[in-house]
Specification:
Layout lengths: L1 H5 L1 H4 L3 E5 L2 E5 L7 H7 L2 H4 L11 H13 L4 E7 L2 E12 L4 E8 L9 H17 L3 E7 L3 H9 L3 E12 L2 E11 L3
Parallel strand pairs: 5-6
Antiparallel strand pairs: 1-2, 2-3, 3-4, 4-5, 6-8, 7-8
Amino acid sequence: MVEKILSVKEKLKIKVIVNKNCYLKVLTDKDIKNNYVNWLNDYEITKYTEQKKTVHTKASIKKFVNDKLNSKADLHFGIFFKNEHIGNIKLGPISWEHLNSEISYFIGEKKYWGQGIASEVVKSLVMFAFEKIGLEKINAGYYKNNIASKKVFKKCGFLIEGERINNFSFEEERINNILVGIVKES
């Protein structure tokens, strides 16, 4: 099952339905448009990510997307709302030995911020990971001052498991890293 789900051919068949207007699909280089490049070069969008100081190009994004597509341990999805690519969510790296993974996301189209889309997307991908892939635990982390991510993870049932003190540099200050996780219900 593991190899089957994470072969490129099978990845391209995965579609996670979030609701009637929203779905997730594995990204390919065909999904790399100017808006995607612009999101990753917009400080307001990336300020709570490790992408904030990187200058991205179509070529660098294409390499990342293709690396994730060919990876046996990552699922990199585009978030599509009314067929418009509005952001990304990644499940990975997946530990097949421990049946756990990390999850990370961003909404790139600012007009969709604050509408609950991120919460629905995270919930849907967690359910997919537990029910379709067989994972037992999903982990995530966020900058302590990232109130939006705090709300998303809390709403999705993630529990705070720890805090790394002064772990990140953010706008010339040291910021704590909040570690959260969710376990598959028996």
